[in-house]
Write a structure and sequence with these properties.
Shape: elongated
Radius of gyration: 20 Å
Distance between the termini: 23 Å
Mean pLDDT: 79
Low-confidence stretches: 183-191
Largest sheet: none
Order of helices and strands: HHHHHHH
Number of strands: 0
Strand content: under 5%
Structural class: mainly alpha
């Protein structure tokens, strides 16, 4: 378990875009990796098979609500930064900085593009850190040595899909799940 955790941590640090896609990629055929929609009931069934106590489910829901509250402004900030990147890129493509364009306008637009790209990278880092914290909090909510490894075994051929797992915990507690993703693709761009 420790080796798997270390390997995942190294992957998360070196390739954050890969680790965030693990939730919706089938891992049983490495020659044919593809993303799949996952049924939220599948994850509810896993929680039931783990025999999670109500206090464990409440802990999972609480950390997920914190995660969602933390991510909303980050994702909004990313959306705005991506709009800036898109508009500047389109402007540069249209004008192609012909003979009538000044070097100053090129420098200004390139500076804005660099700042917006940096902001996108910062939001990706913030999201990655939040996802790691969510995963750790969910794992710590489960008991060791039974529930933690069993979560990974029951999740096969997927990596535990945190959004749907948290939604399943809320459903098990009888909470309103209207703010939760309906399927794995709802937050796949955000995860």
């Amino acid at each position: 378990m420790r080796r798997v955790g270390l390997m995942l941590w190294q992957q998360a640090l070196l390739f954050p875009q890969h680790i965030t896609k693990l939730g919706i990629v089938r891992l049983d055929d490495l020659n044919n990796l593809h993303m799949e929609e996952q049924d939220p009931e599948h994850w509810r069934g896993i929680l039931r098979r783990l025999h999670c106590r109500p206090e464990q489910l409440r802990k999972i829901v609480t950390v997920h609500q914190r995660y969602m509250a933390r991510m909303r402004p980050v994702l909004e900030e990313r959306k705005q930064a991506l709009e800036v990147v898109k508009s500047i890129t389109e402007m540069q493509a249209l004008s192609a900085f012909g003979p009538n364009d000044s070097t100053a306008s090129f420098v200004v637009s390139t500076t804005k593009l660099t700042e917006a790209t940096g902001l996108v990278m910062q939001t990706v880092s913030a999201q990655h850190a939040a996802c790691c914290e969510l995963l750790i909090a969910i794992i710590y909510a489960l008991t060791f040595p039974v529930q933690r490894p069993q979560l990974f075994v029951l999740s096969w051929p997927y990596f535990p899909q945190l959004q749907l797992l948290c939604r399943a915990a809320a459903v098990e507690l009888g909470l309103d799940v209207s703010q939760y993703p309906q399927c794995s693709a709802d937050w796949s761009d955000d995860l």
